[in-house]
């Protein structure tokens, strides 16, 4: 089927997983599986921002370096970073040394703290935007994945985040975040992960935002 690839291990996956062990492992074990841990959510949306103009595989292979550089993406700690930290990060060869993206991560950590005050947790805030079944296509093929680089929902989330002062959170970045964190299940029909991801999503207890 279009959009699927059988790996050298004989397993059928979404085409983008390729045939490299680290990318296949990310596809099989992480991508699309629902997450409500605030630190992981913050890490992912920041790394999606760093990916802008690059491949996700590049970021994935630097992820441990990013975690070391940004205090494990504990946003309460990153929010305290100052100019000395920016200079330190600009001299760290293990990450993407882009001043705008580094400063954006520190800014977004401060905004994340505000979002927790507003909604109770990052998870509660993000999961309130989970699309309904009626808003989702019944089947995703290769062309649909490309076409769905952004959606009405990701555009709305992007708008709401920017209104709250976040940066590097455009609609395409947000949709990639939604796909990875399980707010949608975009594993293609025929991919060996699709059913297990859907089962996890069905059993997942959605966090409720503070009223």
From TrEMBL:
Molecular function, one GO term: DNA-3-methyladenine glycosylase activity
UniProt keywords, alphabetically: Metal-binding, Zinc
Ranges in a coiled coil: none
Residues annotated for Zn(2+) binding in this entry: 14, 27, 187, 191
GO biological process: base-excision repair
InterPro entries linked to this entry: Adenine_glyco (IPR005019), DNA-3mA_glycosylase (IPR052891), DNA_glycosylase (IPR011257)
SUPFAM superfamilies: DNA-glycosylase
Presence of the UniProt keyword 4Fe-4S in the record: no
The keyword Hydrolase is assigned to this record: no
PANTHER family the record matches: DNA-3-METHYLADENINE GLYCOSYLASE 1 (PTHR30037), DNA-3-METHYLADENINE GLYCOSYLASE I (PTHR30037:SF4)
Name listed for the protein in its UniProt record: DNA-3-methyladenine glycosylase I
Organism: Pseudaminobacter soli
């Amino acid at each position: 089927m279009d959009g699927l690839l059988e790996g050298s291990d004989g397993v059928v996956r979404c085409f983008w997983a390729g045939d490299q062990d680290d990318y296949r492992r990310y596809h099989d074990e992480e991508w699309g599986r629902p997450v409500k841990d605030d630190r992981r959510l913050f890490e992912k949306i920041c790394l999606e921002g760093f990916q802008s103009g690059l491949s996700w595989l590049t970021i994935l292979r630097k992820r441990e370096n990013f975690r070391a550089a940004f205090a494990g993406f504990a946003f309460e700690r990153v929010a305290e970073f100052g100019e000395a930290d920016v200079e330190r990060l600009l001299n760290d060869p293990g990450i993407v040394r882009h001043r705008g993206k580094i400063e954006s991560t520190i800014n977004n950590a401060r905004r994340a703290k505000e979002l927790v005050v507003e909604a109770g947790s990052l998870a509660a805030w993000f999961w309130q935007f989970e699309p309904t079944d009626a808003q989702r296509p019944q089947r995703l093929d290769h062309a649909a994945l490309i076409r769905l680089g952004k959606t009405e929902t990701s555009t709305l989330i992007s708008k709401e985040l920017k209104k709250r002062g976040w940066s590097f959170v455009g609609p395409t970045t947000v949709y990639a975040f939604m796909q990875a964190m399980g707010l949608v299940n975009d594993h293609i029909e025929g991919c060996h992960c699709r059913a297990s991801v859907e089962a996890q999503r069905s059993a997942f207890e959605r966090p409720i935002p503070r009223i």
